TrEMBL record:
Highest taxon above the source species: Bacteria
Family annotation (InterPro entries): ATPase_NBD, ROK, WH-like_DNA-bd_sf, WH_DNA-bd_sf
One Pfam family in the UniProt entry: ROK
Residue ranges crossing the lipid bilayer per the database entry: none
Gene3D superfamilies xref list: 3.30.420.40, Winged helix-like DNA-binding domain superfamily/Winged helix DNA-binding domain (1.10.10.10)
Family classification: Belongs to the ROK (NagC/XylR) family.
Species assigned in the record: Microbacterium arthrosphaerae
Name of protein: ROK family transcriptional regulator
Length: 389
């Protein structure tokens, strides 16, 4: 790698700063970029021009309704720059193209009646990319692939150490997908990536200390944001809340002898209670909303157990906000205020004073947006290092 001169290093950082601003904040005027960065107008104009030449941002005319002062062009992330985001699960493979502008021009849920292998996952991803490049993404520029995997993923190299529900052990998924697709690939834990997405763009935006729990077909995972940064742990394996032993106050609430949290608070149990074999998140939420008495009883049982698990997390970590995604959002949102009270009743009073519990505002897109962020990371770090479109 060629070492940058001090001036080149400053320019690289400034390019990254501008690109990250329009990626995170959305379209901004040159004047807003000048104010946000403290750089002068000519420097901003020069940097924006370089990003335009690189095919990373677009400029458009200012809002004609703004008549005060000198018009300032609007700078926006180019929607044609996309990452392929993937979430493999026990019942489906969800894959989407996520734009640098956070648009999702195409997504597909491929339902399966068997456990996906890593080879099959890679082939499906490559197949969909090929099809989309002939159609929806014909004019797009794909910069990489990001995978949100329900399991332990080693941070150093993306090795899937253990995805128990998929039965993947020490699987070199990153290298396999990169070889099959020919694209740079990043792999991360699904809940960690969901936490990052909600922190940047969703229900946890503006909070520096966050506990995020994701409920999916493979169980319950978690992600932590501490002082504004993702907390990964020594190997990248933090957040396995679903493997904790739940505190269950009433013996009649227990369904799995010596089970862990995800054995008791379970999407499969919820599906069975509402009479469904399979469903995506909106369909499950709709079924719960019109559930009969037996399903309501199961929802209430799961809410009680989940509230105790969250109270333990709040006592240990003192977050400003707890965000729930997937089927956990569904059962909490039945009565979010009541659920919040259940948690607060079991926490130390000081920890509960300003605690907020929210459902994931990115809804079913949260894991895909998180996976895309992982795929965009190198581009956002060094826009100048990516070949022009």
């Amino acid at each position: 790698m060629t070492e940058l001169s001090p001036a080149e290093g400053v320019r690289q950082r400034n390019l990254a700063r501008l690109l990250r601003l329009v990626h995170l904040e959305g379209p901004l005027s040159r004047a807003a970029l000048t104010e946000a960065t403290g750089l002068n107008r000519s420097t901003i104009a020069d940097l924006v021009a370089e990003l335009v030449r690189g095919g990373l941002v677009i400029e458009r005319a200012p809002d004609p309704s703004r008549r005060v002062g000198r018009p300032s062009p609007i700078v926006a992330a180019d929607p044609g720059v996309v990452a392929i985001a993937v979430n493999p699960e026990v019942d489906a493979l969800t894959i989407a193209a996520v734009g640098l502008d956070r648009g999702i021009p195409v997504r597909e849920r491929i339902e399966v009646d068997h456990l996906l292998t890593t080879d099959e996952t890679a082939r499906l991803i490559a197949d969909r990319i090929g099809r989309w490049q002939d159609d929806d993404l014909a004019a797009a520029r794909i910069v990489g692939v990001g995978l949100a995997v329900p399991g332990l993923v080693r941070a150093a190299d993306g090795l899937v150490r253990n995805a128990p529900h998929l039965r993947w052990t020490d699987a070199p998924l990153r290298d396999l997908v990169a070889e099959t697709t020919g694209l740079p690939t990043t792999v991360g834990n699904d809940a960690t990536l969901g936490a990052i997405a909600e922190h940047l763009f969703g229900a946890a935006a503006g909070f520096d200390d966050v506990v995020y729990l994701n409920g999916g077909a493979s169980g319950i995972g978690g992600g932590l944001i501490v002082h504004g940064m993702p907390l990964l742990g020594a190997g990248g394996y933090t957040g396995e809340f679903g493997q904790n032993r739940p505190g269950i106050a009433a013996a009649t609430d227990r369904r799995a002898d010596d089970g862990v949290l995800e054995d008791e608070v379970s999407r499969a149990r919820l599906l069975a209670a509402v009479g469904l074999v399979a469903a995506d998140e909106p369909a499950l939420a709709a079924a719960v909303a019109v559930a009969g008495p037996s399903a309501v009883e199961e929802v209430d049982r799961q809410r009680r157990i989940l509230s105790t698990a969250l109270a333990n997390a709040v006592n240990a970590l003192n977050p400003g906000v707890v965000v729930l995604g997937g089927f956990l959002a569904t059962i909490a949102d039945v009565d979010l205020a009541g659920f919040t009270a259940l948690v607060q009743e079991q926490t130390m009073s000081a920890n509960a004073e300003e605690l907020q519990i929210r459902v994931a505002s990115l809804a079913e897109d949260r894991l895909l947006i998180g996976a895309a962020e992982a795929a965009f990371s190198e581009l956002l770090r060094d826009p100048a290092g990516i070949a022009p479109a």
